[in-house]
Known about the structure:
It is built from 19 helices and no strands. It has 3 domains: 1-188, Growth Hormone, Chain: A (Up-down Bundle); 194-247; 255-457, Growth Hormone, Chain: A. By secondary structure, it is mostly helical. 78% of the residues lie in helices and 0% in strands. Keywords: Membrane, Transmembrane, Transmembrane helix. Residues 8-447 form the Major facilitator superfamily (MFS) profile domain. It is a multi-pass membrane protein. It is found in: Cell membrane.
Amino acid sequence: MSAIQRSVLWIAILASFVAFLDGTVVNVALPAISDELGGGLTTQQWVVDAYLITLGALILVAGSVSDAYGRVLVLRIGLIGFGIASVAIAAAPTAEFLIIARAVQGAAGAFLVPSSLALITSNFTGPAQGRAIGTWTAMTTTAMIVGPLIGGVFVDLLSWRLVFLINVLPIAATLILLARGGIRDVRKPDASVDWLGAVLCTLGLGAMVFALIEQPNLGWASPAIWIPLVAGIALFTGFVLRQRSVRSPILPLDLFRVRNFWTGNIATLFIYGALSLNGFVVVVYLQQGAGLPATLAGLASLPMTILLILLSSRVGALSGRWGPRLFMTVGPITMGIGALLLLTVGTEFSYWWQVLPSMIIMGLGLSITVAPLTSAILGAIESERSGIASAVNNAVSRVAGLLTIAALAAIVGGSLDLDGFHRAAIVTAVLMIAGGIVSFLGIRNPSHATTPDDPAV
């Protein structure tokens, strides 16, 4: 690598690490946040969903913004915005202030990962690009491992507020590298940004999520619920209709004419909605219901991450040989079975016998699912459009989590006690199994793939 390439790689790693780390530490801090700032389950839902609303909506437009204004400039703005929002969250005097700061953080975070990958693809070519992306993946994956541990230790020994200041050091290091790296920014003079579409998408999602989160408190008959719900549906419908006619759509609808693309995204909606629900419920219940400290609650799902790291590469190779359909069917159903094992959790709590078996089975299912799902979706679209296809799939996964967390109170019956925990486990299993069924019925293997009984190609 040249000196500039090394700088580019470290900038991409650190910028993405910030976004990945924040996603893994926040669930661990939720009980402590609601204990200090109040609001109970509703506050916990909004802390997660305020971030996902802006992240899910704006990640679609990130590519257009980077093309129009330059990747380095957009990355710098995203880092500064993320850092300021993190400091604001750490200093939040009220739950409402924190939730607004989380929405700002999500908006900034929407530009970090896409811009980071765009920097790599524009500065590396051929085998070097593959190695750079592999290094980026390995380094950012460590955030999934260290995030819950660091977050739990900070919550238990220091303060939940300091959890959100973990980002400041890597952000400062990345900004220094950007200033010294000598990276030439590239802009496309003919690029345009559909800001109106982004606004319609954000407001539509936000209004619908508001209705879903507040409905258990106010009831469906309240104008404060049904008016935002109807308005949100209308705004989001307007966003979709606009994408049919705007010159540079942030959601190209023609992608959904490809069978594996639209089927894979429906499967993503079920699977990642279930993963978000499970990740939220397990970490929060283990603290509030089972009485575990934040550190141990954060480490509860570590077996899933370890299995994903160990097995996903091998499963990806097998998926390329046999096709993704079998794996996308078996994987989510296996995760559904793992979720049902959480029904063994009782008043006499034991992590080793009641939670760990579920985490292992779900980890196996996740390892079987992730690489084939990604390859099925991106492999269905021509390579020159893989960036927008990836952004759409990423946005779908974020919106899936957004919706399941918004509906959490209705799922658990108002409170996350043992009965609510069991209800969430059942809904998680149903969503996972639905993802497997959708994959079985809709996904088609590429013509070059073989079935397990066929001779290898």
